Amino acid sequence: MTTDEARQRIDTLREQINRLNTNYYVLSQPIVSDYEYDVLMNELIKLEKDYPQFKDENSPTQRIGDDSNKEFEQAEHKYQMLSLGNTYSEGEVADFDNRVRKVVGNNVEYVCELKFDGTSISLTYINGRLTQAVTRGDGIRGDIVTANVRTIKCIPLTLNGQDYPEEFEIRGEIIMPRAVFDELNAEREDIGEAPFANPRNAASGTLKMQNSSQVAKRKLDSYLYYLLGEELPYNSHYENLMKAKEWGFKISENIRKCHNIKEIFEYINYWDKARENLPFDIDGVVIKVNSVEQQQALGFTAKNPRWAIAYKFKAEQVTTRLLSVSFQVGRTGAVTPVANLEPVQLAGTVVKRATLHNADQIKILDLHLNDAVYVEKGGEIIPKIVGVDISRRQFNSQPVEFITECPECGTHLVRFEGEAAHYCPNETGCPPQIKGRIEHFISRKAMNIGFAEATVDLLFTQGLVKDVSNIYQLKKAQLVRLERFAEKSAENLIKSINTSKQVPFQRVLFALGIRYVGETVAKRLAEHFQNIDNLAAASFEELVKAEEIGEIIAQSILKYFQDERNRTIVEKLKDAGLQFAIKENDFQPVSDKLKGLSIIISGVFENHSREELKQMIEQHGGKNVTSISKNTNYLLAGDKIGPSKLENAQKLGVPLLSEEDFIKMIQ
Ligand code: IVH
Questions:
Q1: What are the DSSP E strand ranges found in 150-298?
Q2: How would you class 576 by CB atoms within 10 Å of its CB: exposed for 0-12, middle for 13-18, buried for 19 or more?
Q3: Beta-bridge partners for 327
Q4: What is the pLDDT of residues 447-502, one digit of tens each?
Q5: In whole angstroms, what is the distance from residue 543 CA to residue 133 CA?
Q6: CA torsion through residues 495, 501, 504, 508, sign
């Protein structure tokens, strides 16, 4: 490489990495994998080392990223918040061990820990009380998020015992367990919000919310792994952590002391497999020198401690060919690009499609048709394209262009300022948007009318159901004329439609599909406004007075009722006899047979959906929990329950309950 070429490559890399940083830190929408990012970063580090004349203090190699957000007050870290040097290679772990031994001699002990994939936090305790919680920010200053952190159950507000230092800091990771993440994303999809890309983004997004009562609902978890202060109890990292555990901090059970590289590799290889059984994501392991004195002897570089290194697991990756890109229109009109791939085997399944998130990602990947692409299955279930092998690009291949017109109805797409997605604005005329609203309306959590997606399609294309109010005008005679329906199934459908007229007001409200009005919001609105007329007549000020109703939800409700077409649909549904006011016992528990009991549901059940079981638990005064602990009273277990859940239940002594026993309990 000539000096000129090096200069050019350095510039390109800096620009690319800066763009990736914006996507990751500012937009919370990472568009390449950590691995891809690290490869670019390491190439830049190496070039800057080989060509020191191009050193620049504004280069992304000189910063550790910045997660700060101007809506929070900031605080300076008493001790700079550094990150770890990381590697994907066992050889480099051995190099690390050699470097350490050169400085401190052969009498060295390591502590191996899990590398939690969340967002880091620094907590200050003075006289045993939590006084401040600050995010990493740029490493020097971070956002003060104390109010939000106080809502995280496992972070102690006051400490146990007496032997803690007067003042100290403890650092760790805030994470979102996978089960909480799945539930949150399902809820977001219900209300037409874009799902989070992975638990790490969900955790950092949640920590930066303005309303701490909302944070409390998201059930974040946290592990702590690093103590700092002038008067720490011990001279060893491990013993300090064990002491912190006595004070009430959540410290991982999976920390191991290791004495040589062989033991370190055993730990790495064990967790590379076993991590799939953890209820949360880890992205590697961290290896730390145990002795605090030796740590001091080793010291720090500008960015990292020399006494620790992170070994990152490589997500399983394959290359395949991009055949075409299709564009899908969702219920809210958001347009998602989807890559159609040459089928390829990846992590046990055949992958034919991958998400491409949005137009930005296509641009950043500089995707061309027929490109050889790298596909990965990371923490996400849907595989994604994380890079392109430019060296295999075919001559004359065409760049992938984002469409300008809706593929379903031809309307010109719009992109709102500050949003990554393109939308089709034709809400009432675009088939997938209409069908999506109907599917949402009949779904189990909403009106619970038993017809399949294919039936919605059929009824829509036959012109029988053009909006949700038409469902209640359907006649058996019309149905039996259709291909899919026999006498009996038509009868059942009509029965199911009639039964839905008894569905309580809060679920009808949820079923209408007003943007941002999910199940819980619908419940709050129903409680507060009692009936649809009060709600439709409410002003912005009246709306935000209701519990949990913020400005965005209020605006969305106003917009819904301002639209004549929506008001007509509501009137027609009213005429059809749906519940548009709360009934006396809608919010009263049916019994208190499960009072004081925390129950976790897992698996698939024979006679009831999980949603129905959850409702039953609440109706009888019990509490639904999503993660198992020693305070859980029962595990309501169906078929296909995960082996790790079972094992956990056994370990914690939580008894199993069958569907049948549960029904007996509440009868
Ligand atoms: S120790 C001075 N231990 O990984 C070193 N970090 O780039 C302090 N992380 O910023 C960090 N698990 O957010 C440490 N067991 C662990 C960790 C861990 C996750 C995160 C942390 C840090 C990043 C490293």
A1: 167-175, 221-228, 256-258, 282-289
A2: middle
A3: 337
A4: 999 888 888 999 999 999 999 999 999 999 999 988 878 899 899 999 999 999 99
A5: 33
A6: positive
Residues in the chain: 667
Which residues' Cβ are closer than 6 Å to ligand 1? 82-84, 113, 115-116, 120, 173, 225-226, 286, 305, 308, 310
CA of 85 to the centre of ligand 1 (A): 10
The span from the CA of 414 to the CA of 75, in Å, is: 39
Contacts 24+ apart (CB under 8 A), 611-616: 611/444, 611/445, 612/444, 613/659, 613/662, 616/662, 616/666
Q: Is residue 501 annotated as part of the catalytic site, yes or no?
A: no
Can you say whether residue 462 is alpha, beta or left, with left for phi > 0 and alpha for psi between -120 and 50 degrees? alpha
| Inter-helix orientation angle 659-666/610-619, to 10° | 30
Give counts: helices (H), strands (E), the chain.
24, 21
Mutation probe of ligand 1 site: the residue of 286, 288, 295, 303 with most atoms within 8 A of C-beta: 286
Q: Pick the closest to residue 259 from 286, 293, 290 (CA basis).
A: 290
What are residue 34's DSSP bridge partners?
Answer: none
Q: Quick check: 626 and 179 in contact, CB under 8 A?
A: yes
Mean pLDDT of 642-654: 83
Nearest to 554 by CA among 537, 567, 541: 541
Contact by Cβ (8 Å): 437, 447 = no
Are 465 and 451 contacting, i.e. CB atoms less than 8 angstroms apart? no
Q: Which amino acid is at 376?
A: E
Q: Which of 173, 285, 292 to mutate to test the pocket of ligand 1 (most atoms within 8 A of CB)?
A: 173
d(CA 559, CA 235): 62
Does this model's pTM top 0.70? My answer is no
Could you say which DSSP state residue 592 is in?
-
527 close to 587: Cβ distance less than 8 angstroms: yes
Q: Residue 27: which pLDDT band, with cuts at 50, 70 and 90?
A: low
From residue 39, how far is each of 32, 36, 46, 85, 576 by CA, in Å?
A: 11, 5, 11, 13, 61
- 380, pLDDT greater than 70: no
What distance in angstroms lies between residue 246's CA and the mean position of ligand 1's atoms?
22
Phi, psi for residue 185 in degrees, rounded to 5: -65, -35
DSSP secondary structure letter of residue 118: S
Tokens 């619970």, residue?
Answer: 448
Amino acid identity at 265: F
Report helix, strand or coil for 512.
coil
What does the pLDDT look like over 41-87, one tens digit per residue? 888 998 998 999 998 877 888 766 566 665 789 999 999 999 899 89
Average pLDDT score over residue span 152-157 = 90
